[in-house]
From TrEMBL:
One of its GO terms (cellular component) is membrane. Residues 1-23 form the signal peptide. It comes from the Bacteria. It holds the Pfam family Glyco_hydro_30C. One of its GO terms (biological process) is glucosylceramide catabolic process. Residues 70-400 form the Glycosyl hydrolase family 30 TIM-barrel domain. This is Glucosylceramidase. Belongs to the glycosyl hydrolase 30 family. Keywords: Glycosidase, Hydrolase, Signal. It comes from Arsenicibacter rosenii. Residues 403-462 form the Glycosyl hydrolase family 30 beta sandwich domain. GO terms for molecular function: glucosylceramidase activity.
Length: 464
């Protein structure tokens, strides 16, 4: 044992301050962007020892707790589902198990975001109530999930067979065009005369998915409500969203006993006035579970400002893209630092990367949709390439299971980190080495010390 640990230390992967009885074994899963170890369990278990700390120290205080976690995952876009469903059945089953099971080397994705109607990463725009120009359907008699039945619904059912407890959140990119001021899938706003109808559209969606055996645990009211330039998209100002919640959506859910969580905003951290202004309205706030964020603008620390303004409401991080062709070192460092560590240290209960899958040309997408969104997977027929977002999510998803609680940990320079206690009583510490060289550090936990090293720009997931 001593010889094995010494060999690992010489390789620059890890060291122990002293050898001794393995009273509290620690597993290390290393994600090294140079490709040598991509979320790979290291061969030797570590232990905490009664020894002095050396180098920078990460001090855990498991008695100081923060938010509970709902999970880590991706958006299963319609395009992602199409590519998966077109795969060979055996190979599709294998990749879905790898993504959603927790045993072995599977990564245990526990939270999915899906689009209500089309997102810009579907092969076309659609809603569940599309009509010829000039027609309306205020009774929603033509509502149908038919557009999702070839791809999204079958893939969701296969995922639920692997993990029946997975959390699913729905987000619309646009209402049906006939409900909008411009009559188009892109841009425009929801007509006030259709607020009540659109609330019933959400009700029908949740009830229809339930009949398919798919539980919608949460919804956001509008993806990126301040970005009407995507296709599909909708401009929904905060006062419009507040009115829709308190006068229509909240009462509509309450009237039929829908318990699906309602989340505000679903846009960038540079406009925290948007969710705070709605939460300041007690009539709207009573129906709201929390606020959802992206990080294409602003700083992740702004999430704490929203939490502090309304600590009784939850924070969610729901989207961040990676541009093709991707850069394992740069993407992994930015996303682990700002999202896996940054968002969770700022009260987020989720971290979701953007699209789960795309083909080698970053398709499908709508006309006017994202042309450079790199999926966590590239699917070429039935061949799979795992891209940066796959490994970014894996650093947390496998071990930080739903119900885990974030616990306090100190933040030495160049060693951002976050720690959790799982429902099984295990502890998980995710550490990023931001230095361009191997960095040694100590972890202090309940009076014991672990001294470890991480290679340059790599992330370590420690589990004990």
């Amino acid at each position: 044992m001593k010889q094995t640990l010494t060999a690992l230390a010489c390789a620059g992967l890890l060291t122990l301050s002293r050898f001794g009885a393995m009273a509290q074994p620690i597993a290390l899963w290393l994600t090294n962007p140079n490709g040598a170890d991509l979320f790979k369990k290291q061969p030797t278990a570590l232990t905490f020892q009664s020894a002095s700390a050396t180098g920078p120290v990460i001090e855990l205080d498991p008695a100081q707790t923060y938010q509970s976690m709902d999970g880590f995952g991706y958006t299963l876009t319609g395009g992602s589902a199409m590519l998966l469903q077109k795969m060979d059945a055996h190979q599709r089953a294998a990749i879905l198990k790898e993504l959603f099971a927790t045993d072995g080397n599977n990564i245990g994705v526990s939270f999915l975001r899906i689009s209500i109607g089309a997102s810009d990463l579907d092969d076309r725009t659609f809603s569940y109530n599309d009509l010829p120009a000039g027609q309306t359907d205020p009774e929603l008699t033509k509502f149908s999930l038919a557009p999702d039945k070839p791809w999204l619904i079958p893939v969701l059912k296969q995922i639920l067979a692997i993990n029946p407890a997975i959390t699913i959140m729905g987000s619309p990119w646009s209402p049906p065009a006939w409900m909008k001021t411009n009559g188009e899938t892109k841009g425009g706003s929801l007509k006030p005369e259709f607020y009540a109808v659109y609330a019933q559209y959400f009700v029908k969606y949740i009830q229809s998915m339930k009949r398919e055996g798919i539980r919608i645990d949460a919804i956001t009211i509008q993806n990126e409500p301040l970005h009407p330039g995507n296709n599909p998209s909708l401009l929904m100002l905060p006062e419009q969203q507040a009115a829709f919640i308190k006068n229509n959506l909240g009462p509509a859910f309450k009237a039929v006993g829908i318990t699906t969580r309602i989340l505000l905003y679903d846009h960038n951290a540079d406009r925290i006035d948007y969710p705070i202004s709605i939460l300041n309205d007690p009539e709207a706030k009573q129906y709201v579970d929390g606020s959802a964020f992206h990080l294409y603008g602003g700083k992740v620390e702004a999430l704490t400002e929203v939490h502090n303004a309304h600590p009784d409401k939850h924070i969610y991080f729901t989207e961040q893209w990676i541009g093709a062709p991707g850069n394992m070192k740069g993407d992994m460092n930015w996303h682990v630092r700002n999202l896996i560590i940054g968002a969770t240290r700022n009260w987020s209960r989720t971290v979701l990367e953007w699209n789960l899958a795309a083909d080698p040309k970053q398709q499908p997408h709508t006309i006017g949709g994202c042309t450079g969104c790199l999926g966590a997977l590239t699917i070429d027929g039935s061949a799979i390439t795992r891209n940066p977002a796959y490994y970014i999510v894996a650093t947390a998803s496998k071990f930080v299971r739903p119900g885990s609680v974030r616990v306090a940990s100190s933040m030495p320079d160049k060693l951002p980190n976050v720690a959790f206690r799982t429902p099984k009583g295990e502890h998980v510490l995710i550490v990023l080495n931001e230095e361009a060289v191997t960095q040694s550090f100590s972890v202090r936990f309940k009076g014991k010390t672990l001294t470890a090293s991480l290679p340059a720009n790599s992330a370590g997931t420690f589990v004990w």
